[in-house]
């Protein structure tokens, strides 16, 4: 038998060692390709949220989509919605993050979203749009560690039906149920290793082969209008302007389908919509006349200010330029005399109604001028005093 001597033995030993190391390295590389992903079920509160609750998740039933793989953030039908405004209160989120006691949370929140600082939060949130996930969607989520005052990042699979705010590029940016900031899932979809736990049990329709990851639209091609599936009437859709709260949605005659492209509002829908004119800076009487000439109803609320003459319109809701159904209510904010502090709403000159008299209410007038003695003041429909306003009957978010 031939013996291996000297350097020969060393060469064999080295080859064995290199072979073992190669196997271990290859094995580690294989395991490293999988990303541990925490399942986040619809309606389950986060254990360490940034915010207690901004909105409500919804069981979307037949509107569930089995979109799989990487999908474009502006694809028609990617997201869902309902006709009762949004399911995420943007104004509350901004107010919360602007409070001094929440400064540390605001700093971490802004950093996740890629903002220069907390001063940019208000403008950033204003551009976000409330939608509902129609597919189980991969994201990077962030809890807040109160003891350390820092965020805790983790890869997550959000169940369909969870309400989120998306930015103008279609990227999920905020989980509404807890206010947690979201960023992009950094791995390929097929590398997600999803884990369920006692809090987030496996939902009945979960399918490991049918999860989605959103690819934002290019920076120079932001989404202007999201085409959503109406989750309450899945055969129809909703056209929701980016940054809106959902109260001004246009109804689509059929549900948008990513494979079939965009859906246009029906002729009957477009024929009954009117563009809201800009009446800011006008006197109340002139602004009201201009709005009523186009079929709008007008209500007012007063604001004490030193920057505008009394009786001047300083704001309006809905904002100018939006397409709103004919006959909608437009609420005007009117400047009062500085320092009066009356708090009484400013109204236009009373008009004679069908009941007789000059009252401004539904019945109108007083007993002396031919009307009923019943107070003609209508219920307050001035709308929200929040950051973004809304229609008088609008829901501020789920």
What would you say this structure looks like, in words?
It is a single chain. By secondary structure, this protein is of the alpha/beta class. The protein folds into two domains: 37-271, no CATH class; 273-345, 2-Layer Sandwich (Trypsin Inhibitor V, Chain A), CATH 3.30.10. Helix content is 17%, strand content 24%. The protein has six helices and 19 strands. It has helices at residues 7-32, 90-98, 103-112, 121-126, 267-271, 284-293; strands at 35-40, 69-72, 79-81, 129-133, 137-145, 150-158, 163-166, 172-175, 180-181, 192-195, 212-215, 225-230, 237-241, 250-252, 273-275, 297-304, 313-317, 323-325, 329-336. The strands form four sheets. The chain has an eight-stranded mixed sheet. Strands 2-11-5-6-1-10 form a six-stranded mixed sheet. A hairpin with a 6-residue loop joins strand 12 (225-230) and strand 13. The longest helix has 26 residues, at 7-32. The chain is globular and about 65 Å long.
